[in-house]
Design brief:
The protein is mainly alpha-helical. Helices cover 46% and strands 3% of the residues. Among the domains are: 80-128 and 140-227, no CATH class; 234-286, no CATH class. It has helices spanning 13-19, 23-28, 41-56, 60-72, 82-97, 102-110, 113-118, 149-158, 168-177, 216-227, 230-244, 251-263, 268-276, 294-304, 313-321, and strands at residues 181-183, 191-193, 203-205, 208-210. The radius of gyration is 29 Å and the shape is flat.
């Protein structure tokens, strides 16, 4: 009599083998690898957003001023980590303050990781006395020290102007005031003040004594002094007049705009209002006096023809060929406001 077949107990090897899916299915169920981060994607999206807003936004003056300040406080987006920071720089600092108070804009820029990283202030720290061995010889130690990049550009390009009345010693003392202004590690770097590496000694900036023992307030006091300095009012008024009127704006217009800057505590909206409602702005001499940048040429063409665009790669690539890559200018100067920046045999459009 044949023996009855016995089923394998639950969990036995034959049952486990029967429960396994085919090898082909096992291979397909492996988790997909995480996509690689594309460092160019944030920049492309920022360029697209800028072009689309300029072409289709109903707040045209806002977009002009965002473009102006983004260029004024230029950062080189291709410098390593800056490419991950520049989008929030434009969105969280430049755009909200484009028509606000200049001092608020200046503080936002000075505390933004994109600027601190671009001009290397995140590395700047107080100079320490050299270490000596038992025989009194200095021990060579490679360590970061004072970095003057941000301090120099802050005064020369952002506020006072190259002829604004500061000295090399002012550059050194301003740099000392900003020691400890640094950033947290990436990703998602943010501003942080580190007292341990701050120079707590006495400083003197533009004739103003900053007493010893300070902290983050040293830097904030410098920003306050620069934002209210008469040279800053004149420098910003001149640059705005060049943007809106002519490469050589009338001295009377610059003085009126600078006066409004000083009397309103740096109210950008009121300074721009003074320029745009001035007789000089509407004068015959100012008519069609400025050469359009490639960006302005493309945007005005889209608007004039009621065109449609998604600001895709082909359009952005053509702008780069026309020497207007939005965020790729290496020097901290930004593009000049003078028309000669764009005057060439290929330039045919003017305002």
């Amino acid at each position: 009599m044949p023996k009855p077949e016995m089923s394998a107990p639950a969990g036995s090897e034959p049952e486990q083998q029967a429960m396994k899916p085919p090898a082909s299915i096992q291979q397909n169920t492996k988790p997909a690898p995480a996509p690689k981060r594309d460092p160019q994607q944030p920049l492309r999206e920022l360029q697209q957003a800028k072009l689309l807003r300029a072409a289709f936004s109903e707040k045209q003056l806002q977009e002009v001023m965002v473009d102006f300040w983004f260029n004024h406080f230029n950062v080189f987006a291709a410098k390593n980590l800056t490419q991950w920071m520049v989008t929030s720089y434009e969105r969280d600092v430049i755009r909200p303050h484009a028509l606000g108070k200049f001092q608020d804009l200046l503080i936002g820029v000075a505390q933004n990781p994109a600027m601190l990283y671009y001009l290397d202030n995140y590395l700047s720290q107080a100079e320490r006395p050299p270490r000596m061995d038992a025989d009194g010889n200095e021990i060579p130690v490679r360590r970061p020290g004072l970095n003057e990049n941000f301090a120099r550009e802050l005064m020369e390009l952002h506020t006072l102007g190259v002829d604004g009345g500061y000295t090399q010693q002012d550059v050194v003392d301003v740099a000392r005031c900003f020691t400890g202004w640094t950033i947290t590690p990436s990703p998602n770097a943010t501003f942080v003040f580190r007292p341990r590496i701050h120079d707590r000694g006495e400083k003197n900036v533009l004739g103003n004594r900053i007493p010893a023992g300070g902290g983050i307030d040293d830097g904030l006091r410098v920003l306050h002094l620069l934002a209210r300095h008469p040279s800053t009012a004149r420098f910003i008024a001149t640059k705005l007049s060049k943007r809106f009127v002519s490469d050589s704006p009338p001295a009377a217009l610059v003085e009126r705009a600078a006066g409004v800057f000083k009397n309103t505590d740096g109210d950008i909206r009121e300074v721009v209002r003074t320029i745009l409602t001035s007789p000089e702005f509407f004068s015959v001499a100012a008519y069609r006096n400025k050469i359009k940048s490639p960006f302005e040429t493309v945007v005005s063409s889209i608007r004039a023809t009621a065109g449609a665009t998604d600001a895709g790669a082909p359009l952005l690539q053509w702008l780069q060929r026309m020497a207007d890559p939005f965020t790729w200018l290496l020097p901290p100067t930004g593009y000049a406001e003078e028309s000669k920046e764009w005057l060439s045999s290929s330039t045919s459009s003017s305002v």
